[in-house]
Specification:
By secondary structure, the protein is mainly alpha-helical. The chain has a single domain, classed as Glutaredoxin (3-Layer(aba) Sandwich), CATH 3.40.30.10. The protein has a two-stranded antiparallel ribbon. A hairpin with a 3-residue loop joins strand 1 and strand 2. The two termini are 34 Å apart.
């Protein structure tokens, strides 16, 4: 979890619910070379911003991977009560340890680290219910017009795109609370 979200959760008691989102779902066209070059050129700026604003050392994993197995694993981890720990471990593995989170062996290492049993986790990666849950989250994001990550949804309807500093998230929360107070009771 980002430092801003963790701080917001602690200071304001917010509940964070993670939803699945695929940047490159199955069947997506190949990423054009010019776009890959553009992202690679922007990476040093992104890494500097992450360090300056959030105190994060970024060493991201491979670009353009299939994140679906990690997302399915997250649904299983949630069903076992360790969803937040799994999410944080996958985040660190990809963004800070440069690990390939489409690799099942990497996901199994993460699952073991958060207390999940290996064979049960491996089996869960092939269960239709978890895959359908991921598909449901992705469909919901598309219906809301979400086109990137991170995307934060406050009170089920106020969307904030992109990583944001803690202070910005506090202002958003205050604005949402004010709007909700002004609404007539349902």
């Amino acid at each position: 979890m980002s430092a801003s979200l963790a701080r917001l959760q602690q200071s304001h008691g917010v509940t964070i619910v993670w939803r699945s989102y695929e940047l490159r779902p199955a069947g997506s066209p190949p990423i054009p070379p010019w776009y890959q070059e553009r992202i690679a050129a922007m990476r040093p700026q992104f890494e500097a911003m992450a360090k300056q604003q959030y105190g994060l050392e970024i060493r991201s994993g491979p670009f353009g991977i299939n994140s679906r197995p990690a997302l399915i694993g997250a649904k299983y981890a949630e069903s076992q009560g360790v969803g937040a720990a799994y999410h944080d471990a996958v985040f660190r593995a990809y963004w800070q340890q440069s690990r390939d989170i489409q690799d099942i062996d990497v996901l199994i290492d993460i699952a073991q680290a958060v207390g999940l049993e290996t064979e049960a986790f491996r089996t869960a990666l092939d269960e239709a219910a978890h895959d359908e849950s991921v598909s449901g989250d992705v469909a919901q994001a598309m219906a809301m017009g979400i086109e990137g990550v991170p995307a934060l949804l406050f009170a089920g309807r106020y969307l904030v795109n992109g990583a944001q500093p803690y202070e910005t998230l506090v202002r958003v929360m205050q604005q949402v609370e004010e709007r909700l107070k002004q609404e007539p009771p349902a």
